[in-house]
Write a structure and sequence with these properties.
It is a single chain. Helix content is 47%, strand content 14%. It folds into two domains: 192 residues, Rossmann fold (3-Layer(aba) Sandwich); 173 residues, Glycogen Phosphorylase B (Rossmann fold), CATH 3.40.50.2000. It has 17 helices and twelve strands. α15 crosses α16. Strands 2-1-3-4-5-6 form a six-stranded parallel sheet, sandwiched between helices. Strands 9-8-7-10-11-12 form a six-stranded parallel sheet, sandwiched between helices.
Length: 388
């Protein structure tokens, strides 16, 4: 297969999804095009570290304490046209620094896994300051104007739903590829579940519920949900992963001391794929990467209080495809747990089978191949009109 020399990946660390998607494509390119130099840049942190810290803090606080406000903002910006003043201001964020970076690195293509840098590269192309091919991975099953920019050459999306939404917004159908959302190779391996259950001291006779609060542990009343699981009146064992929320982890470590069910609390876990592989049900927020990893492992999902915006759209997609159920309250969590673990375990098996049909295990490889195609079909390589 043809290859190319350099790929610049522009990502951001708002949650884990954007960065992990970037790394998954990097791993795939290492096999398909081993001579390609892949450089992953946390765009917001690089061009404006102070603004990045403030924006990240505001984002986390809003989804924790004012999700309705975040949902209002998300909905209010979802239809902004690329030509609007606010969008053009966003597209100017760090534009000179990025132009210099492009001149220095001289990539054959740019891949964006976060919407802001995709807009900046597109704006540079509009102004004639670069002609570098631009591809974008949309990391949710949602349609939002922040992902849509006129000079994007190729989109990689997670579902036909997103493809139809982009076409409705004016994107060319031949530039949109339904690949799935890429996950790391570790989620695609075959697991020795018996050995892993011994490793984590799990009882093979009990169903296992994995609770995931996101990388920063922002699932609302997760502490109360976990306490109810620790004392759930039917046979179950519980694994809780709090991510980087150390305060929550310490709180649950204290609570778990009185648990009547076998229960285990972890902070950030690099080998999360092992815990997902040995679980029977995952209680989680529907972030784009987490749900893609669960689909890869055919892990049924109980979705809880999705953040208004992209997570609500992700939840709707998963419900429609039959791989998840949605709980809007702790009472509904208990009802779904009883249904899926005790009263109707066949429903959980049906969700596994649906996940097998929906999952896309070759997303990273398809995206890597698409990037090679994009570079090699371009009439000219990246051409910079301004010299340093």
């Amino acid at each position: 297969m043809p290859s190319f020399s350099k790929l610049l990946v522009l990502s951001a660390s708002y949650g884990e999804g954007h960065q992990q998607a970037a790394k998954a494509v990097q791993d795939a390119l290492a096999h398909l095009s081993p001579t390609t130099d892949v450089k992953i840049v946390d765009y917001m942190r690089t061009v404006h570290p102070v603004l990045d810290s403030v924006a990240k803090y505001c984002y986390l606080q809003s989804v924790k304490f004012a999700p309705a406000l975040y949902g209002w903002f998300y909905k209010g910006t979802s239809q902004i046209p690329p030509t609007s003043l606010i969008q053009r201001q966003l597209n100017s964020l760090g534009i000179d620094e990025l132009e210099q970076h492009l001149r220095d690195f001289q990539p054959d293509a740019v891949l964006a896994t976060f919407p802001t840098p995709a807009g900046v590269v597109s704006f540079l192309k509009e102004q004639g300051r670069t002609s570098v091919p631009l591809a974008t991975i949309i990391t949710d099953h949602a349609i939002h104007s922040q992902w849509i920019h006129p000079c994007t050459d190729m989109y990689f999306v997670g579902s036909e739903h997103v493809r139809r939404g982009l076409i409705a917004r004016g994107m060319r159908p031949d530039g949109i590829h339904v690949t799935g959302i890429p996950v790391r190779p570790a989620f695609l391996q075959t697991f020795d579940k018996k050995r892993l259950k011994e490793k984590y001291r799990l009882d093979p006779r009990l169903p296992t519920v994995l609770v995931m609060g996101g990388a920063y542990g922002v699932m609302g009343d997760i502490a109360q949900v976990c306490e109810e699981l620790f004392h759930y009146p039917y046979p179950v064992q519980v694994i809780v992963v709090t991510g980087r929320n150390e305060r929550l982890r310490n709180q649950l470590l204290n609570t778990v001391k009185t648990a009547i069910n076998p229960s285990f609390v972890f902070g950030f876990v690099s080998e999360i794929y092992e815990l997902m592989a040995i679980s029977d049900l995952m209680l989680t927020k529907p972030g784009g990467l987490t749900i893609s990893e669960a689909l890869a492992l055919q892990l049924p999902m109980l979705l809880y209080r999705p953040i208004p915006g992209q997570e609500v759209q992700n939840a709707r997609y998963l419900e429609r495809t039959g791989v998840a159920v949605l709980a809007r309250s702790r009472k509904q969590v208990s009802e779904h747990l009883y249904d899926l673990l005790t009263a109707n375990p066949a429903k959980r098996e049906h969700m596994r089978k649906r996940a097998f049909k929906v999952r896309k295990l070759t997303a990273a490889e398809e995206i890597a191949a698409g990037l090679i195609e994009l570079v090699n079909r371009s009439e000219t390589r990246a051409h910079y009109l301004y010299q340093p």
